[in-house]
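Task 17 of the worksheet. Students: predict the tertiary structure of the chain below and write it out as structure tokens. Keep your answer in the requested format; marks are given for formatting as well as content.
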Amino acid sequence: MKKVLLLAAVAFGFNAMGQDAANARLMQAELPVSTAAKEKIEDIMLKRGGAVDDLYDYTDFLYQYYSSDMTLGAITTTPDSSTVIVYSDGSTGNSYNHAVGATYDFNYYGWGDNEFDEGDQVTIDSLFVIGGYDIFNGNNSDKIRFTIFKGSNGFSAPFSGVQYNAATFAALDPTVQPTAKTMAYAGDSDGGVAGGVTATTTTVIDYNLSTADSGVAVVGVEVPNGGFSLMGDELLGIFIEYLPGGLTATDTIDYSNNTGDINPFYFYYYSEGNTAAPQGYFIQDYDSTSTNCSNFLFSDTRYAAWTGTSAWRNDQTSINMSYSHLISLRASGTSSVGVDELATTEVSVFPNPSNGVINVELNANAAATVTVVDVLGQIVYRSNENFVAGERKMINLSNKAKGMYILTVEGEGVNTVERISIK
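Model answer:
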């Protein structure tokens, strides 16, 4: 069994925060919502299967793919909304958030080389969440509870599809009707500690908080019994609760003087800074993945408050696509993505970089199509060729702009992708 890789998680968490602070002024421009060009490149670039053992988190591809004005925040989470919070200005309010969560789809191309095929088995070895823990009452025994489960990538329990109004996010194509996945939750009007996720088979892991966890901390747990396994065509649900000890119906968290009957815990997240025109980052790829990182239970008068078309909120967690909780996990397995597409014929492309004149050579006789696309996914060259072993075919791209291109050679027994550069 692997050890819990806290150092990796710490690097993820604090590097992400530092990156947000350091690059805030450099990340103001919004990229277009359409990612069609990027997806074309991703589809063309064949991923080679093999051993995978890596950390998965949303913040990585959030910063890699999208320029944004995301800001760091924290949500105080308690299991019962009767808890009264007194803020520094003396105002009071209830704590309405009762748990946070994430939905992972390991068959998402955004994971890059760590993507799994639908028929691959994935094993979850450890889980992490970043948050802040304040000790107002040293007599309480508090814990973080991780509940993980799996379900089909569809609209049946424990995952249910929730249709969002196409106009919810201003930057989205108004004709789009994206479907987001949330995890089904069996609520109870008696309080947040009753009920839970509706999955029949779950793994529950408790982490007992201590003074060493105070301040900003990474909470990491090892998944017992050799890990939690699922297939690449299934979704993984992660539900994370803060369970304070000695819970009563009249608890108070007083931020004005840092006292209270229970100790608070804050789950950290990145949120959309552009509230006037939110981008809805986690549904931009609505047609490619069920990956979602903002499941949380939120209700101001508990579960019975919602009626009519909003009644689904009474027994499910809610979704906010403009949030990304700092939840990560370590997964391992053997990926077969691209394995069945590996070329049986060797292809040589040279010189690379070049001045635009490129030679393509095969070590066998074959009919194949040579295609070159630019970084926008536009085809700039295509030719059907009959290769003879050892014979060079010359491709003249000298009239094309300098930069990076993707060259593919596809045919019977041939399936090769190369990055080429014109200087």
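Marker's comment: Residues 113 and 263 are 41 Å apart (CA to CA). The chain has three helices and 29 strands.
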